[in-house]
Specification:
It is built from five helices and nine strands. Strand 8 and strand 9 form a beta hairpin. The chain folds into two domains: 149 residues, Sandwich (Jelly Rolls), CATH 2.60.120.650; 54 residues, no CATH class. 29% of the residues lie in helices and 29% in strands. By secondary structure, it is an alpha+beta fold. 22% of the residues are buried. It comes from Alkalicaulis satelles. This is JmjC domain-containing protein.
């Protein structure tokens, strides 16, 4: 880990571990107390451990995210969640599990990014679907990442997922509004589509779900590509 370019994501460790779970529950109890009306539907906490030279390329997440930094120095760049930095068809593909969260990137966009260095004890959050990229600047990095589902993010994702489903049926949806009867209809349609795909949809692996590398302590990156092994 200290010599390569690796990331370890201990997913839901903050929800499941007997030591960390009370800390995670206390964190969200404090957030609700300090922010009246903040009522997440669900929240999942993972622990990220990454090599000093590791980076995360330009991508967007489907959930609202809060990252609390514990160890090392990490540089965050956050970009606006709309075109040209983000295109809705990309999010539709991600929500339909046809694409990974990685997206095309233009280095010139750095001029439009909010850039910050995270040190131990600092935290960062960003708008839903806002693209971002991360570079480790100093030392082995450890962070806690909180993936949160709220009513707002649930509706936004449902509308985009429904639009993507309609597009796959040859239709051309135009509205991305999360308000009104049309949005509620898209929420119901999205749920029905997902249920139908579970029953009759094609069985295919999630993007990036396969094992594509082996840990190799002799390599500069700390791993080797299986295809080239």
């Amino acid at each position: 880990m200290r010599e390569g370019k690796l990331w370890i994501n201990l997913r839901e460790a903050m929800n499941r571990d007997a030591v960390y779970k009370p800390l995670f529950e206390g964190l969200f109890a404090q957030l609700r107390r300090l922010n009246p009306g903040y009522r997440p539907i669900s929240a999942y906490g993972g622990i990220l451990i990454s090599s000093p030279k590791a980076q995360v390329f330009y991508h967007a997440d489907v959930s609202e995210t809060l990252l609390l930094h514990v160890k090392g120095v990490k540089r965050f760049r956050i970009y606006p969640p709309h075109a040209p930095w983000l295109h809705e068809p990309s999010m539709e593909g991600l929500l339909h599990k046809e694409k990974t969260e990685d997206m095309p990137f233009d280095p010139a966009w750095d001029a439009d990014a909010a850039t910050m260095d995270l040190t131990p004890g600092s935290f960062v959050s960003w708008p839903l679907h806002a693209p971002h990229r991360v570079e480790n600047v100093e030392g082995l990095n450890v962070s806690i990442t909180c993936e949160v589902v709220t009513k707002a993010s649930l509706m936004r994702n449902a509308v985009l997922h429904a639009n993507g489903a309609m597009r796959r049926m040859g239709l051309k949806p135009r509205s991305t509004s999360t308000q009104g009867v049309q949005a509620l209809a898209k929420l119901a349609f999205s749920k029905a589509w997902k249920a139908g795909m579970k029953i009759a949809g094609p069985r295919k692996p999630m993007p990036k779900s396969e094992d594509t590398f082996e840990v190799d302590l002799g390599a500069d990156t700390g791993y080797r590509d299986r295809a080239a092994a």
